[in-house]
Amino acid sequence: MLCTLSETLNLWVVGYWDDKKISLIIIVILFGACSKHEIITFKNMPQTQLILSPINETNTIDTDKFTQIFEHFKSNCQYKRVQKIYADVCEKSFHVSSAKKFFLENFKRYEILNNKKDESGLLTGYFEPLLHGSRTQSQSYKYPLYKPPSNLLHVSLGDAYEKLKTMRLRGKLVDEIIVPFDDRKTINTEENNFSAICYVDDRVGRFFLEVQGSGRVELDSGEAIFVGYADQNGHAYTSIGKVLIEKKAIAKEDISLQSIRNYLQKHPDSLDDVLHVNRSFVFFKERSQGATGALGIELTPMQSIAVDSSFIPLGSLLSVESDSYKQMVFAEDTGGAIKGSVRADLFLGFGEEALEKAGSLQEELKLYTWLPKKTF
């Protein structure tokens, strides 16, 4: 523990020896002086500091939702990444009758400490957008959803350089030398021979599709297709919202997906300058199902979140607590803007209502992970 018995003894051996004072000091030792929580790390979460957070079953979760979470957990247990975290508990889940009892008897809950000491945790939201497009490029449908280019290289240096293990390194070969891959401005403004899934009519909508990671495109043929993240050009993500705040184009308290879109629609001449600040560019693939996260699982509204996988393993069972949300969720996705140990992006579903909620959600967050009592 951070405060040990021997350390505490040093506080009182100097001279308080009558019976009443000794009794009082012993109470202080047991219940006061050593009340600091022990900081814990586990081998599959080496960068993540945790403290045990006893489960209060009356306020940890809406008990009516235990069954939904339980069924979601059992479904996820078919995936190897989830089995790696919850092997024995996954097996038990198929032989119990009470969802609530299953969680309370088999898990301990730990609060995740923020690696950003000077910041609060942050909960935001994302959704599955709808765009309109065509398989053929035209004046109406100008903006391509590109597939990963054939010359995009994945550079793996993690074995040689430990610090690079969690970094997404991409490049291309030029005169037998690997150089950084093209940034957003280059991809948008220079000729290339990339293949496209389709072409959409809304450049800002395409940009936000990249941020969300998955979406639907309603084609002019009447067909609707699902598209999702396939790869990225390797450049770091930059929030255009922060840039617009810094430029005083939008007040910090007014920033949202909707206010950013409104600003760009009213200032079309600044579109290049704003969008190209984010050098990151996402490539897509066509999918057979709706919004799908990095874990390969179709996302569930209000139960799936995106996390920073360098701190939290994909497949983890978690709890989010903010002003508006207090519920158990699953780490099933990642995102370029999701950085830090206490950072989560809650999937809110498809449609206008989901867009409205996601566009304005920005709340202080406490994040917890649920781990088997017999852990690692």
Comma- or semicolon-separated keywords:
single chain, 376 residues, alpha+beta, 6-stranded mixed β-barrel, 6-stranded mixed β-sheet, globular, disordered N terminus
Structure explained in plain terms:
It is built from 11 helices and 18 strands. It has helices at 5-9, 19-33, 66-76, 80-93, 99-106, 184-189, 203-212, 240-246, 257-266, 271-275, 352-360; strands at residues 39-42, 45-52, 107-112, 121-128, 130-134, 143-146, 153-154, 170-174, 177-180, 196-200, 214-219, 224-232, 282-287, 304-306, 317-321, 326-333, 343-350, 362-372. The strands form 3 sheets. The protein has a 6-stranded mixed beta barrel. A 6-stranded mixed β-sheet has the order 6-10-5-11-12-13, covered by helices on one side. The chain has a 3-stranded antiparallel β-sheet with strand order 7-8-9, with no helix packed on it.
How are helices and strands ordered from N to C?
Answer: HHEEHHHEEEEEEEHEHEEHHHEEEEEHE
The total count of strands amounts to 18
- Helix-and-strand structural type: alpha+beta
Number of helices: 11
Would you summarize the structure shown here?
The chain has 376 residues and is of the alpha+beta class. The chain is built from eleven helices and 18 strands.
Topology:
Blueprint: H1 5-9, H2 19-33, E1 39-42, E2 45-52, H3 66-76, H4 80-93, H5 99-106, E3 107-112, E4 121-128, E5 130-134, E6 143-146, E7 153-154, E8 170-174, E9 177-180, H6 184-189, E10 196-200, H7 203-212, E11 214-219, E12 224-232, H8 240-246, H9 257-266, H10 271-275, E13 282-287, E14 304-306, E15 317-321, E16 326-333, E17 343-350, H11 352-360, E18 362-372
